[in-house]
Amino acid sequence: MADINPTSFKNGVPKGERNAFFGIEEQIMAAPGDTIVAVVTYEVAKIVHEEIEDVKYPVVEIKHIEILGDEKAKAAAVKLRDAAYKARTGQNALDLGGDF
To answer: Does pTM top 0.85 for this prediction?
Structure first.
């Protein structure tokens, strides 16, 4: 039975309307160091099986990125992230710096 390796991430991000970063370069360059909170949706693009090494791993691809600009939405998303992290690891949230 093949060993399972960590998830791999497909290069690239969605273009246009499925990527909230698209077209806001000047806005985010005006605020270096700011923390951006976003909802990111992934899809399992494929399962890779390296036969020689006998390992398998999933490859995920970003399907949609949506920036949360409203402070209430940011705070709610961070609470959800922290709760999910604690449920998964049993530890309190990581200190990622910044306001969020």
So the answer is: no
